[in-house]
Amino acid sequence: MRKVYSKIESIAGNVITVSAEGVRYGELAEVSSRHGKSLAEVIRLKEDKVSLQVFAGSRGISTGDEVRFLGHPMRVSFSDNLLGRIFDGSGRPRDGGTELVENLIEIGGPSVNPAKRIIPRKMVRTGIPMIDLFNSLVESQKLPIFSVSGEPYNPLLARIAMQAEVDIIILGGMGLKYDDYLFFKDTLEQGGALSRSIFFVHTASDPIVECLLVPDISLAVAERFALKGKRVLVLLTDMTNFADALKEIAITMEQVPSNRGYPGDLYSQLAARYEKAVDFEGAGSITILGVTTMPGDDVTHPIPDNTGYITEGQYYLRNGRIEPFGSLSRLKQMVNKDTRADHRALMDAMIKLYAAYKESLEKKSMGFRMSEWDNKLLKYGAIFEKEMMDLSVNIPLEQALDNGWRILAECFTKEETGLRSDLIAKFWPVK
Hints:
Structural class: alpha/beta
CATH topology of the largest domain: Rossmann fold
CATH architecture of the largest domain: 3-Layer(aba) Sandwich
Largest sheet: 10 strands, mixed
Number of domains: 3
Oligomer: single chain
Shape: elongated
């Protein structure tokens, strides 16, 4: 039986402090006030002083209210009944369905022992050429999508959710506008993907502590499904909101700020979530795509800067497209060799020619005379952006490869592509 404490030492914002013993970091407590009972989570331990973040806010709580520690951290129900359901950041139903209370599992556990992992070797097909052809997503990979506010990163995630060749999609929404939440719900429902999806959604109007719980609750459920042999894709949006929630709580706790006011353990907090990506021998896998909006499009900002050290590349979303320059999947070579013989060579050739197109475009904008080669590059670049970079394009990898050869044949001679003669002999389209 846990002790009940009837004296709250201080109330600062949504954080309350009590004197207590035998309490663990991350443990839940129940605060009883005149407005009813509220859940709170232990976020700081200093000698016998225990600070708790109240989920529903501290309004209505007085220093004479009771605090009862529950003896366990946040838990979530795990079963196949989660599929097709939508929950808030603390695991309560948001879709009007029944609350699930069976088979409770703890969230926020340690990452999988590296000795239990296997080398990533399978491709996750998405139907998006800029991913499948140029920067393949690999099972158990962790990749951020670097973007700025206003870019269509949520529509991109919704498309990936509908088209990715995986068993289960888990969407972790942090600080979502209500319109974005409804967009995800309606898009996946209309696309027939909601039945294999699970939503954990924290909206901008929800308690801030629930924003911190979303990645942990999403990844705890993902890990259990992966152990059952499922290929799970976890989509997190937006990790900047997660980091800002960490910052807000750190300020409330009067912690010494680090770079630009973020807590000193920002790297560890991000790594603890991204490192959950794993491929289990003889079971399933967890692949993580996390949107990171960059304030001022500044990649040196602490959030993308720390993220880059943890993850295995990144996708840059600019001007409504995944940019070929800057985007990188460091594990793509693990799967490119097994797709089709021309994959790697065609990818390299097309990007090289696109870089040359950018130079010709700059020359044209400065008023230089265009050569015949420049005109070929300008024609190629326009077709490439329309048929490869446009996010509305939805085709299998093999068709994207065939389209790549067709685009090259439309704009250049065989010799101008720089491709090997054996590949040209096999794949060059016959007019």
